[in-house]
Amino acid sequence: MRRIAHRLLTIAVAGVVGSGCGSWKRVGSQEGPAPSETLTQLFDLAGFYRKLGRLAAAQPLPFVGSVAFAAGPADSVVALFGLSLENRAFSFQREGRAFVARYRVSLSFARDGARAVALSREEVVRVATFQETQRAEESVLFQQTLRLTPGAYKVVVSVRDMGSSSESRASGDFTAPRYAGGSISAPILAYQATGRGKLSDPLALVLNSRGAVAYGGDTLLAYVEGYNLPAASVVPFEVHDEQQNIVFRDSLRFRGGRPVESQVIRIAPDSVSLGELRLVVGKGAPAREVSALVSFSQAWVVTNFDEMVDLLRYFGENRRLAVLRKAPAADRSRLWRDFYKETDPNPSTPENEALNQYFGRLGAANRQFTDEGVPGWRTDRGEVFIQLGPPDESVESTPGQVGRIVRWAYLTQRIALYFQDETGFGRLRLTPGSRAEFERTINRVRRQER
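^ thats the sequence. predicted structure below, dont judge the formating
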């Protein structure tokens, strides 16, 4: 088990025969996802990652898992299983000067007609500050290597927080391929990779289980192996976007005559393609592929620039958002990176706590206020909830009737806000007096935060 920061530098790969590095090339036109799709991605992370072929679970203990395969000694297959977790999902306890959480991973690879390969491991997460226990992005990595025979497997994984009763489970179907002479592995998404010279050598990889990279920042790293290639070979490598446009193309060159050769492809985004990407090695039937994701953050998946700017309407950085809204495509990556840094209340951490809190509240508002016929975050209650948080007191009079009134009290701000259904159609609106009081309060809070 390793913990890593949100952004990692890609290290040089020792013992790797070759590597490719290139820029993103846009071919053809791109249509972004519809607003409803963007909101689905934002509020259903587990469902989105399942679409990418990952093992993913939602609350109470969210995680994203992946399985990668490579050739092993003789006819065996090496399965590298990885999990990506968030600190905030665990129950931390104070131990001395540190905060400690413990969790158990139970893993099973089941194959028809054979005994399942199963194991359990307990791990410890130790951080120095309480703030680190609240990290909302990928902050814990778990890995396990297994030796399998080729075939189809049902993979089941459960993760349990030992400090509480929280437990989540995910399952999926995977095929461990048979690697004949002259074959190539599927691209393996990783943070770090070291090539190997023999099939009996261990796979020295740190998996990028989510397969995610940050818009305008990270480098996407893919590791590929070739097995017993009879002669020097050139294998095509392509990256496709959601519209099947080829956004990157390269060739992998193998010397041949070796039991295993390793290559690393580093794709440095300069005009990055947001959304799902397919990394494809080879052509035709022998081709192998994996899906990756380019998003604004690992803590919340949004893959459409215009929708991201719209979702931030209550964030309070109107001047900076106006710059983003008017930005030409070539400048968006740089300007988003600047926006992320400039609005980060704590630059010493790898995440932007203000944006994480904002999208957390946006998601909560969308789940809670579902009775007005519009998305919950677009209601007046959603607007207030996102900017001020949940009220300290909530009182409703004449529920379900014409003239319905809801009173929210915020004790710290010393205000009471009233929402009223004046039309009888279930739309609760801030009364004019409450709207004015709310806007004065928001302006005061934002001045204090600067």
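The radius of gyration is 25 Å.
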